Predict the structure.
Amino acid sequence: MEQIKISKGFNTPLAGMPDIGIVEFSDSPTLGLSAMDVPYIRPKLLVKEGDRVKTGTPLFFDKRDPSIQFVSPGTGVVEKIVFGERRQLHEVVIGPEGQDEFVEFEPFSQSYLSAVSRDDLVNRLKQGGLWQALRQFPEKDTADAAHTPAMIIVSLWGSDIFSPDPGVVVERDAAAFEFGLEVLKRFTDRVVVTVKAGSLDRLPRVKPLITHTVPDIYPAWNPGAVLYHLKKDSRENSSWCIAADHLIMAAKFLMTGCYPTEKIITVTRGREHRPHVLTRQGARLERVLGDFKEGEIVTTGRFDGRKVEPESHLGFFDNTLNIVATPDQDEMFGFLRPGKAKATASRAFLSCLFSEPKETDASLHGELRPCINCSYCENICPNDLMPSFIMKELLSDGIEDALACGLLDCCQCGLCSYVCPSKIELARILADGMDALYKDKQG
Amino acid sequence: MNPLKKIFDLSEPHFTGSGRFGKLEPLFDATKTFFFLPSTANRVMPFIRDNLDLKRYMSFVLVALLPVVLYGIYNTGFQAGFARNENLGLVPAFILGSRFVLPIILVSYVVGFSWEILFAVIRKHKISEGFLVTGILFPLTLPATIPLWQVALGISFGVVLGKEVFGGTGRNIFNPALTARAFVFFSYPVSMSGNVWVAGLSPVDALSSATALAVTGADGGSITTALSQAGFTLSNLFWGSVPGSIGETSALCCLLGGAFLIITRIANYRIIAGGIAGLAATALLFLYLVPGTQGGWGHAGPLYHLCAGGFLFGICFMATDPVSAPGTNPGRWVFGFLIGSLTVVIRVVNPAFVEGTMLAILFMNVFAPLFDHVVVQYKSSKRIPNV
């Protein structure tokens, strides 16, 4: 087991760490398949309202590659298809009816896995709606099946600081996880399995499978950060990554032939220590969120997630829900207060002397100002980027210079925006730059 | 509800949009956000943000300047009394000093802020916090004897031509406070040349006093002897009880402020450390390797160079202005080092100017983007290409 040394990142202790226990909320009034959490997708619907679907029935596919399909997380009737502005597909809502009926496939045994051709394996995963769990760098689009990646990075920790603990998620399915790693070895010669050094003790069964540990600093476990610190060659830029819970899903699907509907998520709010939640794919958020007040927003990752509405449904890529307060009162003389409880990466508040966990809210804590060159973003970027310089290149259409400065090495952890005292949306500007470039490349 | 908040809420319609004083919206906004830190909800990722904002960032520089300002006021009064052969106590000296210094600070803030508001109104953007610092730094670089109209003219030049013509805070090439000082220095050399820097003296008496850097050793005598004969012993220079510009005399107060800025990471320590290293290295070079007269500043050694004149004030508060300094760490080292080095070179070699700090910093401000460019190019070349 090797250590990956990453020293820069988010060090502030935060309040609200989930408990290791599990509560079960498996029943959900409606189930949904979201298209909002899938990057770059151009969905094309396969069903209409009123259609009956089984668990595993494709509901829509990606127009860019029709073989990438997205399948129903439950059995029942398509109740509603939710569109947003300009008829952008948000989600397909299913009213569950009775017991799960599965679209069934021939199960794969361990011995069959070594005999089956790579193409058959890819097709089976695509039919099962699980191929898209594999993402390809640098844009993290759905992996290109024709490409052989230099490495596949499996991260045992999700994107948020309080993502589900692998001791809870992975340990209970260690056999499936091991099977999943065998599957990945059919696609590449190098499978990298990373875990936070701090959670290693809770992983007695999975420990022998782990290849690298990363420090407990957000976002050291982000596959983008891992790739940046491991790569030695530009061929490795197009590596793949997959989350451990998705790998387990894919393995279970291959082993049983049925779409696995279980999902473990964490829900965090303020200083509460809520247990992990065992629920199902596409569960209605209201069912798992528990109590929360008006004025609080729900995100799928406080740094790099998206904002979700409580009446929507859990996406395929979501495994954390943060309930974050939005303060409704402007603070008097806010900039002069000593700030003993204020979370900060700087040294400008008294709080930096105390290690007790800090609470955070969804406020900007200031106003937009011009960049003053303070280098706070550079000092926190895990991938040694200089976000302020890249931002200036992008805003002046210097795309070549932005690329030379490492734009595509950005792992979109959001820390540059977090830390900026001028409140510039650095992460957003960099992400937009990458997106524009990617769409341009695709033609 | 907070009564103050109520006043702001009630008067807001008059100061926004098509309100009667709609044009003064930036002024209203600046006043309101001074009292109430705005808390807009985040709409895009990341949903949580650091508590540090530019208001706090800039006000920390003001906190760091407190010892310098207080000591500057006291010392102005003390020197004025000393020149009249009175040994003033702490309070009388402070009161006498306030009479000279406070008007200068006031004029600087009022005139400078008027320009800021004017530009904010025309450009329809918010008033940036940068001027909070500029408005106090500039008076501290001036002698207490400066006529107030020169202060007004200087700060106008600094704000308008030093900052606003480039696009405002964050886009200026030069440090605005130093630009203002350079303007006064070159336009009104009589007020700034160093022989009349004790407040409250008639012009006749004034000739009896000079700043440390104007001292030279007479007839083969060493510079250090000449300095202590004139009252500029090393300890006086360190504690600051010597005549000079308002804020520059006390090395100790500048170091305290600098240390505060370094600990709170508002200023980058690389600039200050690089500057002191550059100054020491160059001073030693002149002391041991370059032949010259015993009486010149070339033979003063690093400690005298450090404590005399405005170097510590400049390197701690002016050179660390993040906007006009380089934005890369190696660039900051070089930037600081060259400021220190150039300061000594100008002091020793250039007979036209006794003090070199201001010119060294302004000169290096011009080079800051070049340092950044070289560092960015180098760093990019070391990356594994990803295109």
Observations:
- The mean pLDDT of chain A is 91.
